[in-house]
């Protein structure tokens, strides 16, 4: 029976096993480095795009859709809008640029900011009939 260090072992075979292990380790390492290069390249491209877009876009000091203090009284046709009662509708934007009553920083109350689309904006509803005003009343 031949042992591990027996000189009769085929040395070419043992070298080929070591070479295959070494090759597979190199292949694994090159794949990981390739993945890293792709990730770093993508991050670099996104960073350059971010800087370029920040340089070419127009900056606004106001982030409101409507100007603060905006008021509109409208008379929507209730026959075209189911669920909308007839009569004048008050659409008011506070001095903070938000729909609804003004914020009082001294008031000891919770305020909830509602973010959404047209159903949150509720342009054709009176200030008191929006779901945000109803939620405020219920809370």
Mean pLDDT: 80
Low-pLDDT windows of residues:
none
Number of distinct helices: 3
Regarding quaternary structure, what we see is single chain
Query: What does the main sheet amount to?
Result: 2 strands, antiparallel
- Reading the helices and strands in chain order gives HEEHH
Helix/strand/pairing category: mainly alpha
Sheet-strand content, in percent, reads: 5-15%
Percent range for helical residues? 40-55%
Amino-to-carboxy terminus distance: 88 Å
**What is the gyration radius calculated from CA atoms?**
34 Å
- The outline comes out as elongated
Strand order of the largest sheet: 1-2
Tally of strands: 2
How would you describe what is shown here?
By secondary structure, the protein is mostly helical. The chain is 42% helix and 6% strand. The protein contains 3 helices and 2 strands, in the order H-E-E-H-H. The chain has helices at residues 11-56, 118-121, 131-138; strands spanning 71-74, 89-92. Strands 1-2 form a two-stranded antiparallel sheet.
What topology does this entry show?
Elements: H1 11-56, E1 71-74, E2 89-92, H2 118-121, H3 131-138
Antiparallel strand pairs: 1-2
Quick structural summary:
By secondary structure, the protein is mainly α.
